[in-house]
User: Fold this.
Amino acid sequence: MPGRVGDSPLIGAGTYASNQSCAVSGTGVGEYFIRHTVAREVCALVQYKGLALQQAADEVIHKQLTPIHGDGGVIAVTPDGQLAWSFNTPGMFRARQVEGGKVEVRIYNDEP
Assistant:
């Protein structure tokens, strides 16, 4: 919408990176991503609680955002190359590829 600034350009909310944990990029209803500093929270769970990347992303998206009706998702990568994505909407355009692996492109939640 004209004049609206979303969460994506805000460090901590829609984007965050730390050499000690991971890098995260998010998309969704910005007010919730800002309020819960979603990208930073995923990194903090990896760094300080020792959660695996996928577990941390799912914790924030499904256990923190979903109950308050915050729709959206994240993609994330760790310094050692772990990849994860998590979202609570019917679909989220996403893709990933690891070195030597096949390209994975997905849209909907029910795709393997």
